[in-house]
Amino acid sequence: MTLIRPATPSDVPLIRAFVHELAAYEREPHSVQITDDQLLQDGFGPERYYQCLIAEHDNLPAGFALFFPVYSTWRGRSLHLEDFFVRPQFRGQGIGKALLTRVAAIAVERGCARLQWDVLAWNQPAIDFYRGLNAAMLDDWRRMRVTDDALTALAALEPETEARA
Q1: CA-atom Rg of the chain in angstroms
Q2: Where are the strands (E) in 17-155, listed by range?
Q3: What are the extents of the domains in the chain?
């Protein structure tokens, strides 16, 4: 039997374990820098940056979905699914579909116009799974990212015009 439930503060070590397993699957195990303390503060502190669902199958942790609100100036309220992962031994049992269905239901409950996420170009099994659920691939869009020293350098640039907060 599969249970989809909201994560609790006691799940933080499990969430971080899932993040590491997903990063290894995505061929980026060295990129994870998140700590339990950061996950605890950001997901369960006074200013929540994310929410997380845990999938359990026969009382064993099988997968997770981590998401947060974003805003589209074209469509309004939206949710971004940052991480979505089902452990390999649990795949093909409907757990991923149950997780994604629950995140979609949360989006609808909150009046969101869309649910969005990223998928690696080489991850054909995931692409096929998402397309089977009527998700559309945005081939013309590319995500841009600035991190670490590049983020600090960008923030320190002198603007040519005055910035107002």
Answers
A1: 17
A2: 51-57, 60-72, 76-86, 114-117
A3: 2-140
Mind listing the pLDDT tens digit for each residue in 47-105?
999 999 999 999 999 999 999 999 999 999 999 999 999 999 999 999 999 999 999 99
Distance CA 131, CA 47 (A): 34
User: Per the CATH hierarchy, to which homologous superfamily does domain 2-140 belong?
Assistant: Gcn5-related N-acetyltransferase (GNAT) (3.40.630.30)
| Known catalytic residue at 130 | yes
State the pTM of this model.
0.90
Decide the pairing of beta strands 60-72 and 51-57. Answer: antiparallel
Residue partners of 81: CB distance under 8 A and separation at least 6: 65, 66, 67, 100, 103, 115, 116, 117
Got the DSSP string for 81-101?
EEEEEE-GGGTTSSHHHHHHH
| Distance in angstroms (rounded) separating the CA atoms of residues 56 and 35 | 23
